[in-house]
Structure formats: C-alpha cells, structure tokens
Amino acid sequence: MPAKTIVIRIxxxxxxxxxxxxxxxxxGMYFKWIAGTTEIGVQVAGPIHGALFVGYGIAALALWRLQxxxxxxxxxxxxxxxxxxxTLAFERWAGNRGYLTAAPAQQEKxxxxxxxx
Length: 117
Hints:
Largest sheet: none
Distance between the termini: 46 Å
Number of strands: 0
Helix content: 55-70%
Structural class: mainly alpha
Number of domains: 1
Number of helices: 4
C-alpha cells in the first residue's frame, strides 16, 4: 500500500477521532464547570484530545507535503482542529475537492480518434 494511501487513511481516522474527543472534552467540561460534580471527564478526555489534536496536525502537515496542497488548504486543515467538530467538515470538503485522493488529479483531455477509410 503506497505511503500516500496510508497517510490519507490515518488522516481521515484522526479527523473523526479528534471530533469525537472534542465531544468527550466538552461533556467533561460541562460536568466540571457547570454541573460542578466531577473532573474525571476533563482528566480523561483532555489528554486524549490533546494527543489526537497533535496527531491530526502531524498528519495534515504530512499530507501538505505528500499531496502538495496549496498553503490555504493546509491552513484550513490546521484551523479546523481548533474549532469543535470542524475536522469533520474539513475532511468532507477536502475529500470532495480531491485533496484526499492518492491518485494524481487527471486532467480530462478530449479523445480524438481520427479514422480514415
């Protein structure tokens, strides 16, 4: 399996996991700061979210290099990790535009067949 394919798969998994860890962290913050009942959610979800955040950032930097993303695409990938659940939106957006495909973008050329009889 080519390196690009592996990094793309890891990036997609990390985008989903990072968004889920945001949810867990937000729930933990609710119980810590609003309900005032327990800190365990933040103590558990915080480090997990931090690790996934860093992993997502590293995967985005790797894809910037491997896929030769324009700077703006890499910037949006990085910014998406800062806002809750935005990695899901970025992953979908980038996938729809071909930034998460291992194959190089093919330019369509009109097929011209000349048949002389």
